[in-house]
Amino acid sequence: MSSAASFSSHQIAPDSLASLPRTCGVYVFWGEGKLPLYIGKSVDIRQRVLAHLRADDEVNMVAQARRVDFIETAGELGPCCSKPDLSRRTVPSSISVYDVFETCARFA
Predict the structure, then answer these.
(1) CA 33, CA 1: separation in Å to the nearest integer?
(2) Which residues contact 40 (CB under 8 A, 6 or more apart)?
(3) Residue 60: C-alpha distances to residues 3, 10, 15, 44, 90 (Å)
(4) What is the per-residue DSSP string for 57-69?
(5) In the chain, where does DSSP find H-type helix?
(6) How far is CA 33 from CA 8, 37, 60, 64, 75, in A?
C-alpha cells in the first residue's frame, strides 16, 4: 500500500486530528477497545501523528485507530517522563484515559 493510500484510509475522527498541537508531549492511538493501540512521544505531536498515518509499515495499526488523545508537556524532557507512566497506567482496563492523563500531568 502506498503512503498516500495509507494516509487516506484511516478512520480516525477528524476532530481528534484537528486538535493535535505542534508542541511536546505524549500521544495515544485508541481503537474500539479499552486498551491503547500505541503510545508515543514527540517534540511535535501533530507532525509525528501525521507521520504515523503516512507510514507504510503502520497501516494495520492506523486502520484500527479511531481517536488520538494527547498530553502536552513542558519541554522535551516531559514526554520522556510521561510516556513510561502512561504506558504502565493504561494497561488496567478499569482506569479511564482521563485518570491516566490526570496522573501523568504531574510530570508536565
Answers:
(1) 25
(2) 26, 27, 28, 29, 48, 49, 52, 83
(3) 13, 10, 21, 23, 21
(4) GGHHHHHH--EEE
(5) 3-8, 14-18, 45-54, 59-64, 77-89, 97-104
(6) 22, 9, 15, 10, 31
* C-alpha to C-alpha distance for 27 and 83, rounded to whole angstroms: 9
Residue 22, all three cell numbers: 505542534
Question: Is residue 3 over pLDDT 80?
Answer: no
Tens digit of pLDDT for each residue in 54-105?
999 999 999 999 999 998 987 765 545 555 555 555 444 444 555 555 544 4
* Least confident interval from 7-11, 27-31, 57-61: 7-11
Fold of 3-107: GIY-YIG endonuclease (3.40.1440)
Give the domain ranges of the chain.
Answer: 3-107
Q: What is the pTM of this model?
A: 0.68
